[in-house]
Structure formats: C-alpha cells, structure tokens
Amino acid sequence: MKKVKYAKCHFVAFSKRDHVSKDALLIDVSSYSEEPYCQFSPFYVHNDIPIPKKPGEYSDTVEGIWQGLKVIRKKIAPRYFRGPGKKRGGKPEGHKYGGKLLSIVEARYKIYKISYDWVLENKIEQVIYRDILDNAKKGIPQYFHDMENNGDINNPSSPLAHASLLVQYINILIKKELRKEC
Predict the structure, then answer these.
(1) Which residues lie across from 160 on neighbouring strands?
(2) Which of 16, 42, 43, 127 has the maximum number of C-beta atoms within 10 A of its C-beta?
(3) How far is CA 41 from the centre of its chain?
(4) For the segment 52-76, what is each residue's pLDDT rounded down to a tens digit?
C-alpha cells in the first residue's frame, strides 16, 4: 500500500498574500470572505460559545468574548457577547479571566485561543474540513490569511491573525488523518 504524504497548510500574513505561488490555494478566512470560509472568522455569529471562566455564560462570537472581557476604564462590556462581533474602542488594561486581569499574551492563550479552538471543534461544518484535508491529501499547498499580519501569539505588538491558529488546528487534523491511514 502506497503511503500518502499530505501537504501541510500554511499561514500567510495579509501583506504577503500576493507573494503566494500561483499553484497554491490562497484561502481568505476573514469576515470579508465568502461562505463557507467566513465561518472561520472570530466575527462570525455561531451562538452559544462558552465564555472562559464564566460558567453558564455564552457569547455569539469569539470576537464578542475577546472584546467583552477586555477591561477598559476598570470595566468589562458584556453587551459585546451578543450580536455580531465588533471592535471596542479605548486603551485596554488587560482581559478579565475569572478574578484575574491577564496580559494580552496570557489572554490570547487562556481566552482567545481556547474560545477559537472550541468553535473550530464544535461549530464548523465537518464538510469544510473534509475539502481542506482532501486538498492536503492531493498535495495541494494551501495558504490561509485574514486581515492581520501577526501570526505569532506571543507577539503583543500587533493584533493576532486568527488564520495562524486555524492553520495549527488544521495541521493537527492532517496528522490525525495520517495516523488513521497508517
């Protein structure tokens, strides 16, 4: 039996998307993309997303969680948990996590990534992943981008590109597919 080698998926910064090889698939996963890929946006209304460290409370979007737990002028803004995701103005002091105030990098790991991964696991239609995995199995390079350039969760100097987290998640799915076929 021939061993299948899957092509890994890649994150590409928004500013570098025009430099991707023409034989690769360039997939926009921002809120401006078409269905079904806009479902990967943190602004997409999925409903009933658990809010970390707030048992029994839910948000409609990942962005709503991120903005709603942001502490500005000593307050969070739970109204952001409802409706489409939107940005919140003001200088953040951190993010509320239970009784703690987290730095941006800590909050990215404990709030944003946890919430986004939960959505990827529980809210995205499996057929979308199937198409991506089939392309990977065919050896087709796939590059994912959103509207941001920062793919490093540990770099607090600019907003994080959720496409980088998506690529990590998809590459884990690819590894699982490979193990199933061995």
Answers:
(1) 150
(2) 42
(3) 7
(4) 999 999 999 999 999 999 999 999 9
